[in-house]
Design a protein that fits this description.
The chain is an alpha+beta fold and 349 residues long. It has two domains: 5-122, Phosphorylase Kinase, domain 1 (2-Layer Sandwich), CATH 3.30.200; 126-346, Orthogonal Bundle (Transferase(Phosphotransferase), domain 1). Helix content is 42%, strand content 13%. The chain has helices at residues 55-60, 68-91, 128-134, 140-159, 210-213, 221-242, 246-252, 267-286, 292-305, 316-320, 329-346, and strands spanning 19-23, 36-43, 46-53, 100-107, 115-122, 126-127, 172-175, 178-181. The strands form two sheets. It has a five-stranded antiparallel beta sheet, with helices on one face. Helix 4 (140-159) packs antiparallel against helix 11 (329-346), helix 6 runs antiparallel to helix 9 and helix 7 crosses helix 8 (267-286). The longest helix has 24 residues, at 68-91.
Length: 349
């Protein structure tokens, strides 16, 4: 990496006035993408987070044998899309998403690969995956407040035609007493002709909903993507309660032959086994919720959001009435109620 400017920015002053402080070490839980180098940066006494794009990493992973021009075009397109999507969200008054606050392109002399496009974000206190790994004492009311913030953010994104598709613990960023959705880079937004709009699913397959893992196609774009986001939100609730994803719990109750890695049959044929495993997973989740007063309603919320059959996913009152079963308004209200209920339970101790 000695000849790649993106990896050698520490101590430099960018043309926009930002001083690059230190490179952030990559971990299994890191946000920021596979083709960027992350740094702390500072300007006017404010410390922020920077993603510097590493073209060489992208070129080195050219498994499809595509031309260098095509690869560079793709990468620049992804960079521009994440920048433009952040601006699009800001203009549409989305509040629960971590935004790009500045972007630019730096030419660093003395390197074969000296051009470095970059995005600068507000510095978060951390992400939920890391926080929960080190803080077993977090009260459940705090967790529900954080989940409510994320549900609001997801509802805001859906309201302006954006499907996040990569909602997971490491993409929940903490800012003082507020949680926000991070990393819009894998999102879909037809209004901006996003690079992933034609994909069935653009996020991390570790958290993908069953219809994706079992190759069940939903033709309507809005239904397909928003129902995926609902499942990811429900899985996030599960993670806050148990420390693992919904998929991990479901797979614990499925024989190996029916798991996506090995199974080659249809979704319809495996559906009954998925539903059985899912019901057992809900029992596991219930046993992990500390307050008896909220167990039934929180498990029911997870049940609605994570139902394995996508057409039956969502709040029953949404499914049976005019509107969409992926509307998140009822879930925002329910998380708010459960947060208040948990706070009252804490006062008893």
């Amino acid at each position: 990496m000695k000849d790649v400017a993106a990896h050698n920015l520490e101590g430099k002053i960018l043309s926009t006035g930002w001083k690059v402080l230190k490179k952030k070490a990559k971990t299994a839980a890191s946000t920021g993408g596979n083709f960027s180098v992350c740094y702390d940066v500072e300007k006017d006494g404010k410390t922020c987070f920077m993603k510097a794009i590493d073209f060489t990493c992208h070129l080195a992973n050219n498994f499809a044998g595509r031309s260098v021009v095509d690869l560079m075009t793709d990468m620049l397109g992804q960079f521009q899309y994440e920048r433009d999507l952040s601006l699009y969200c800001q203009k549409n008054r989305v509040t629960k998403v971590a935004f790009v606050i500045e972007s630019g392109e730096e030419m660093v002399i003395g390197f074969t690969y000296g051009i470095v496009p970059y995005l600068i974000f507000e510095m978060a206190d951390g992400d939920v995956r890391t926080l929960l790994a080190y803080s077993a004492e977090l009260d459940f009311a705090w967790k529900l407040k954080s989940l409510r913030d994320i549900a609001v953010g997801l509802r805001q994104l859906h309201g302006i035609g954006v499907a996040h598709q990569d909602l997971k613990p490491s993409n929940v960023l903490l800012f003082h007493n507020e949680s926000k959705i991070g990393d819009l880079g894998r999102s879909m937004c037809p209004a901006l002709n996003g690079p992933y709009d034609e994909l069935e699913y653009s996020g991390d397959f570790t958290y993908a909903p069953p219809e994706v893992l079992y190759r069940f196609h939903i033709s309507d774009w809005e239904q397909r993507t928003y129902l995926s986001d609902c499942y990811l939100l429900g899985s996030l609730v599960v993670f806050y309660a148990t420390g693992v994803s919904m998929n991990a719990l479901i797979m614990n109750h499925l024989p190996a032959s029916l798991q996506p890695t090995y199974y080659r049959g249809s979704f319809e044929e495996v559906e009954i086994y998925l539903l059985n495993a899912y019901q057992k997973a809900l029992i596991d989740i219930r046993n992990s919720i500390p307050f008896e007063a909220i167990k039934d309603r929180l498990v029911k919320l997870i049940e609605y959001l994570c139902y394995p059959t996508p057409t039956k996913r969502g709040h029953p009152k949404n499914i049976s009435s005019v509107g969409s079963n992926y509307n998140l308004t009822r879930f925002v209200s329910e998380l708010d109620y459960l947060r208040l209920k948990s706070e009252l339970e804490l006062l008893k101790y």
